[in-house]
Amino acid sequence: MPRRVQDIIPNNRRSIKDVETKRHHETHAKTINTEVLEPKPQERKTDENFHKNIKRQRNGLRWLLITIGIIVVIAGIGYVASVYFSRATFTLIPKTVSGDIDSLYVAQENSATSSVISYEAKTIKSIASTTIPATAGAPVSTKAQGNINIYNSFSGQAQRLVAGTRIATSDGRIYRLTSSVVIPGYSYSSDKISKIPGFTQVNIIADQAGDTYNITGQDSISDFKIPAYIGTPKYETVYGRLTSEITGGFIGSKKNIDPRILASSTTQLEASLTSSLLAQARSTISSNQIMYDTGYTITFSTSTDMSSGLLSNKSLSSSTVNLIISATIKIFVFQRKDLASHLLGATTTASFGIYGYNISGLDELDMKFIPTKSMQTSVHAKGPVKLVGIIPVTDIQKKLAGRSLGDLPSIMKPYSQVVESATGELMPPWANIPIDIGRISIVIKAK
Question: Model's pTM, two decimal places?
């Protein structure tokens, strides 16, 4: 049955009312929700401050962490760099032994006796000359003289030659024996094959006066032969050989020289020769050797023209002569370590072991050499001598490389024979000793 309008309207009205009621409730609820969700102005300000503080704290923490990170990185880099570029310095004091020497010792050439100081003898010769004033004197005529050895390879029996026997050079210059001689017969070597001629020394004098009979070391001279043996086997088997210069032959005017000038000129030449020969000797010795200006013997001789009081100038009008002096020096050369061993004792020098020692004071010693009649020489030595251990720096640097400073005593123990004490310093202090030995400095400090 159809509904009536009246019936419908009331229903609509109720619906509208219900809708309005529902809207009212929704609006009220929305108001309530709005009031709950949206804070009041004071609350909003407090919340904003809170969020700002949180953000500020977060930013501060982040920068703190960044700063700490940077510090850690820088510190790490600094530590690594300081270790990598670290340096070490060690101060070593070498072992030192000193002695004040004032004793007399015995020295001998090439001695093998431990109680005797051995030395090597160096022999050097030299000649010096000078011109000195002289005046012409009375005419003189002299014959040259010298020594020869006469050999006998003719017979095993002795051969006799009488005084005055003529003996000649290959160029025909004749000399005579000044005394009779007996020449021993020949013998044989131990293998019974080689013949050894017998010989004896004899003085000869020129048959004629004049300097043409003078024979010096610069002259080339053959064997002397005996003219009386020409045509016999003895001519080739009995012969003479020069053993010294033949000098003194002169025909002319003897030069008169003031004795004082001669003496002073001779002294000056001898002093000059001595100084020159010592300088030559010093230039020939090695760094391991030592010589002393007092440790030598020297002999002088005038020129052959001066040996008989005659001078070689023949010109009567000449107002000068040449004074020629020859010198032979024998120098005592010692081995430094051998000398130190005798002065301070073999036990002392051996205490430095394989590393050895340097010597100071040897060159400044006051050394007096006293010749004796035997082959030995007495030596009085006076003065201070010091032995200083030789420290093997490179070897020690290699042993120290990369080690701890606390290992220094054990590292240095093998070097106790030459190192008395050792201290070390590191930069920076926390680093180990560098591996690179170029950054390890060793300072040797004298005691």
Answer: 0.56
